[in-house]
Amino acid sequence: MNEELCKILLLSGVKGDTRRYRTFHPYEQLCLAGVDCQLSHITDPRLPEKASRAGLVILHRVAMDRYVESLLADWLQRGALLILDVDDLVFDPQAFRWINSPDFSDPLRAALYQEEMHRQRLTFDACQAVIASTEFLAGHVRQQGKPAWVHRNAFSLEMLNRAEAAYRSHPVSSDRIVIGYASGTPTHDEDFALVKPALEKLLLQHPQAEVWIIGPLDPGRDWGSLAPRIRRFPLVPWRELPEYLVQFDINLAPLVMDNPFAQSKSEIKYMEAALVRVPTIASPTDAYSFAIRPGENGYLAAGDSEWEQALALLTEHPHQPRTSGEEAYNQVRQSYHPELRAAELLSTLDQISRHLLGTPFRARDLNKEPEIKAGKSTSLPGDFRIDLELERNPSLAKRALYSIRYRGVRTLLIQIWIYFRRLFAPIFPFRSARK
């Protein structure tokens, strides 16, 4: 690799938690490792300037269009290394049939999403290697003929600090038992249905138990006399999520095992709950089987009887949630800390560079070589931060301008229709979880 082009550019084409986990957090990790790197979004007006100095580009959900095509051509001409980052099967148009989303009852929304998947596939084809969030995804990529490495999702230092603050301020638990499920997208109705029979049985046996559902999910309206103990809360910003998770006694992470789109999900739900010392019961997907040691730092459940057994163990033995939660916390602090992930990411990039170019990866600032001690730091040196303004960008206006310029009027009109349809969709009644 040309040493004059060693700067790393992390480029995303979307907003939200997927961008945060797959670009903001790796950016933090690279900063911890003393690597010369930059963040950007496809709508960033300074992107051409940043692109001109990039020798290694990690593209996250950057769908192909005329602008992206020109950027990729320029990078390849200058000898830059192009790596695609994937955290689900959005790059495989054949996977659309596996996405269980009520949004796709709207044929316009479904058609636009499928078009986006085809554009993502074109970017996939143009890149030289792939970094995936799970081994399941990496295996799927390799089946498509592309070399792939795994870099798992990890928490950020701000997530750790906010989780610690929520845990310290949480009052001593009462006799109430809270079984919680946090849904980030409206695609998990079938997943939640897996655990519903076990939850109904537990609620009948334990009058003090409640089920809390955070975010977009339809648990059904057939709970009968148990309905008052099914509490619904809106999707909350990630900075506030620990204040809700810390009130759980048990965290749920069910996934439909024969659905490849579900199988591709990472172990984020386990990690986020573990930061506030709450144990998780999860389906035994590739990611959760990697993270959870059953009976120690959590539980895996594949069918009704296993969900019932795990729920019964954690509700009938008061010490067990605390013991499993503490073990999960220790495991996450040790294995998912950004300093450890920094070292792993550097190793992965070095492997990719050697595999594709036959040369080692060099992107450190040799004048300030860091000493990485996994699990020790709670803050970053220098002026690194991911502030609210960066997360809010790009604005709707900027995204609309980009769409009309590079995708056309038709795409923009469909996006506007979808936006207003969501804005005026029926809203479920919510009750506050704050005390």
Can you tell me about this structure?
The chain has 435 residues and is an alpha/beta fold. It folds into 2 domains: 239 residues, Rossmann fold (3-Layer(aba) Sandwich); 178 residues, Glycogen Phosphorylase B (Rossmann fold, 3-Layer(aba) Sandwich). The chain has 17 helices and 12 strands. The relative contact order is 0.14.
CATH topology of the largest domain: Rossmann fold
Strand order of the largest sheet: 2-1-3-4-5-6
Outline the low-pLDDT stretches: 1-5, 365-375, 379-383, 426-435
Helix coverage percent:
40-55%
Tell me the span between the first and last alpha carbons. Answer: 55 Å
Structural class: alpha/beta
**How many distinct domains?**
2
Q: In angstroms, what is the radius of gyration?
A: 22 Å
> Which architecture of the largest domain does the CATH hierarchy give at level 2?
3-Layer(aba) Sandwich
The overall strand count is: 12
CATH class membership of the largest domain: Alpha Beta
Shape: globular
**Percent range for β-strand residues:** 5-15%
Task: Write down the secondary-structure element order.
Answer: EHEHEHEHEHEHEHEEHEHHEHEHHHHHH
